Amino acid sequence: NVFFCLTDAGLQARVAFAFLDDVKSRWGNGSASSAFRDTLRDRMGYFSRPGADKITEVQAKVAEVKDVMLENIDALLKRGDQLETLDKKAEALQQGAKDFKSRATDLARSMWWKNVKIWIILIVIIIVVIFFIVVAACNGFTFPNCRPSS
């Protein structure tokens, strides 16, 4: 028996040969009956669908997995860039915090010294005021009214 098959140029040869092997195994007596025509039509429909070629189906799945992997790698690279940017921002923030702490310490020290100076000036003024009150109460700088009389 001789079997042949006409296909489109895009159909791979292994699909055509799989079709011929299937028809040969189903049609053993060689008669072209209506059952054979129905079987032939059924088999043509089966082998014309995209999933009939297992290798092409596997290749499509491999291509799909490859695309997913490429997307994952791209996402990973973007995440790495984002982590690098975040790391740089964290370092800048840490340096800013150190600068702030240093300036805050300097400002606190400066304010403490200003406060000390104000207290010293206030104490000196109070002493001077008390001195002048005593001088006025004792009738002069020689304190004649404040000495015990002899």
Can I get a quick summary?
The protein is mainly alpha-helical and 150 residues long.
List keywords for this structure.
150 residues; mainly alpha; 3 helices
Rg computed from alpha carbons, rounded to a whole number of angstroms: 52 Å
Morphology call: rod-shaped
- What is the ordering of alpha helices and beta strands? HHH
Uncertain stretches: none
Proportion of residues in helical segments:
over 70%
Annotation, overall tally of beta strands: 0
Distance between the termini: 162 Å
Task: Lay out the secondary structure.
Elements: H1 13-26, H2 34-48, H3 54-137
Helix pairs in contact: 1-2
Account of the protein in words:
- The chain contains 3 helices and no strands.
- With 150 residues, the chain is mostly helical.
- α1 runs antiparallel to α2 (34-48).
- The chain is rod-shaped and about 160 Å long.
- The mean pLDDT is 83.
